[in-house]
């Protein structure tokens, strides 16, 4: 949390920077396609009886006038819960406690923040590595809801640590095995990815160090068309444009 608080102002300042520098990044793209997925998500109204169960360490919080959504991955939980914003009463939830989840292999991330104006709920399934879309209104009315469709995430971005949306693209960054920022088109399901080498930061990096470099924070600024990554272990802040070009690499003070 302390690191997060330190990184937020740095990211905000960095998004203002517009100067560009050279880049040796490699760009490539593939088509990943998609397939219908009819298996339903089981809903369980007894997973969390009150919003107080989730205030310890929520990994995601989304609030509208009518609904509050909390993602719980504390102690290996994998739960998404929906509460009435006015009464804080539980509406419904899905997922499971501890290890061995029922449907999503790890805590999903809600990608669509404007829930008040869009019925489609987008989830990134960390464990099974797929983008899933479900109907929010149907989710709240039924005991089981069918997934509208899923997009399988290709091997190049299997271990994506952060996911966000830019225009019509799903953006993922940070993998354990490769340095990638991936752009997945919502309509064509074509993926373009930036493959960057962290070795430019330190010549002393080895294979085990690489995964630490890729443990990053990501922020997206659509107005300035910038993506900012903070490489925590090596105290570097990296600024990319929406084409995946490196614009700035800044060494941070300890």
Account of the 3D structure:
There is one protein chain. With 254 residues, the protein is mainly β. The protein has helices at 2-14, 136-141, 207-213; strands at residues 26-31, 40-42, 58-63, 67-72, 78-84, 90-96, 109-110, 120-125, 130-135, 144-146, 149-152, 162-166, 169-173, 180-185, 190-195, 216-221, 226-231, 236-241, 246-251. It has a 5-stranded antiparallel beta sheet, with no helix packed on it. The protein has a 4-stranded antiparallel beta sheet with strand order 3-4-5-6, with no helix packed on it. Strands 7-8-9-11 form a 4-stranded antiparallel beta sheet. It is globular, with a radius of gyration of 19 Å. It starts with a helix and ends with a strand.
Give a quick summary of the entry.
This protein is mainly β. The protein is 10% helix and 40% strand. The chain has helices at residues 2-14, 136-141, 207-213; strands at 26-31, 40-42, 58-63, 67-72, 78-84, 90-96, 109-110, 120-125, 130-135, 144-146, 149-152, 162-166, 169-173, 180-185, 190-195, 216-221, 226-231, 236-241, 246-251.
What number of domains? Answer: 2
- The strands making up the biggest β-sheet line up spatially as 1-15-14-13-12
- Tally of alpha and pi helices: 3
User: On the 0-100 scale, what is the average pLDDT?
Assistant: 61
Q: H/E element string?
A: HEEEEEEEEEHEEEEEEHEEEE
Question: Helicity range of the residues?
Answer: 10-25%
What shape does the CA trace take?
Answer: globular
Uncertain residue ranges: 1-42, 100-107
Cα separation of the termini: 16 Å
């Amino acid at each position: 949390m302390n690191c997060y608080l330190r990184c937020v102002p740095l990211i905000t300042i960095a998004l203002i920077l517009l100067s560009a520098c050279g880049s040796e990044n490699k760009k490539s793209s593939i088509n990943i396609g998609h397939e219908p997925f009819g298996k339903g998500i089981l809903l369980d109204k007894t997973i969390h009886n009150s919003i107080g169960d989730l205030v310890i360490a929520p990994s995601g919080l989304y609030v509208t006038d009518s609904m509050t959504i909390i993602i719980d991955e504390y102690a290996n939980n994998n739960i998404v819960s929906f509460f009435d914003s006015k009464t804080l009463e539980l509406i419904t939830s899905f997922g499971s406690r501890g290890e061995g989840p029922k449907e999503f292999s790890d805590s999903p991330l809600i990608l669509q923040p404007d829930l008040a104006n869009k019925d489609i709920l987008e989830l990134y399934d960390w464990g099974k590595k797929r983008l899933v879309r479900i109907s929010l209104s149907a989710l709240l009315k039924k005991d089981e809801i069918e997934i509208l469709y899923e997009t399988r995430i290709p091997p190049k971005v299997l271990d994506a640590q952060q996911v966000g949306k830019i225009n019509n693209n799903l953006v993922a960054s940070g993998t354990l095995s490769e340095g990638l920022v991936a752009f997945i088109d919502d309509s064509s399901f074509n993926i373009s990815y930036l493959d960057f080498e962290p070795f430019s930061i330190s010549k002393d990096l080895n294979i085990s160090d690489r995964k630490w470099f890729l443990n990053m924070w990501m922020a997206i600024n659509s107005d300035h068309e910038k993506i900012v990554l903070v490489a925590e272990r090596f105290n570097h802040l990296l600024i990319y444009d929406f084409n995946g070009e490196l614009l700035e690499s800044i060494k941070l003070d300890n």
